[in-house]
């Protein structure tokens, strides 16, 4: 090292220490207190640390060495002065990621005031996410941590907890390419009448149960995912031997692994349609508290934790489901009090005009559905061996046969995972393998099997990216 006056960090870190020491190193780099970093080859997140170092070296230079078991370990140098504007290509790619997140690479200047004259909030050691780092950079540091560690991180400080439970966390993780996609399934309890949610890890070899959901065990409820949060809405439960429609709403935060009770709905209901449209939740139709069919519609704003009634359906509708395309709410399937048998009409709500429209060409008695890309995939009650695919661009339908595995009467729950469609059986069958459909695969090879499999029959399934 030619710079004899430069300070050097030499060592390694792993496990729970990684992220803490990364932040410390970045702080030293920001203030120019070190110029050389020598790390062991065993560092797990060396590329991420290289990203941090590359960002901090803007306007100066530094190098770090990766030991490979001999004194002659390879040294990588980063030189990026303002006049040259050059750096290693991989560092440049890392800086592009950081630039997209609108990072400030230099700490904001603070006036040097006598501490007795400074506002109390400036003296608060928990005011900054990471003391000494710009806010944008600190948020990226936290967002780069694997999602499984977030519940423990939430106990560090109120500021960390506030960021980890905000929708900004998911936005930052998306910017830096760190979103993790997990599948959640609702399965029956062993030897009991209840049920519980569990996480299916991507390897398919392990299932992790979630904390118990509040309230009574319900059926006929709705589920919606917004950002990293799962909303379980209404339904009916047996209370003292009588089925009662519920107005309760629960939220599961997948980053903090905890449930929260939200504001109650204006109208208790079950067997209704629900979907997320433009960041808010719509519910429509269903059965009311006294078993009456409903045409009422209400919308939930997560920012305000408030339900608001809006213009209702043209006719009462139940057993239906909802989805969204191009900023509009689609309500289809189920039954209507104005039809004999099942309803084929599709009610379409435009939030911009606050008006309902209608499409005649719908499907009936859908037992499972999922939106993949710009198309809707359904399985109808009368035909469990065929996927009905709806294209909202031209309101057209097409059929795709489902390969026969197990009993021909097997019913499925659909969930999207990594741009593919998974079919989980609603009834547990020995030897059953999860079917997976890839609409982008070459003709004839769209179907295969997946390792992902619930511990029992699948009552409901969702995918959460966070």
UniProtKB/TrEMBL annotation:
<dbReference type="InterPro" id="IPR006652">
    <property type="entry name" value="Kelch_1"/>
</dbReference>
<protein>
    <submittedName>
        <fullName>F-box/kelch-repeat protein</fullName>
    </submittedName>
</protein>
<dbReference type="Pfam" id="PF24681">
    <property type="entry name" value="Kelch_KLHDC2_KLHL20_DRC7"/>
</dbReference>
<dbReference type="InterPro" id="IPR015915">
    <property type="entry name" value="Kelch-typ_b-propeller"/>
</dbReference>
<keyword id="KW-0880">Kelch repeat</keyword>
<keyword id="KW-0677">Repeat</keyword>
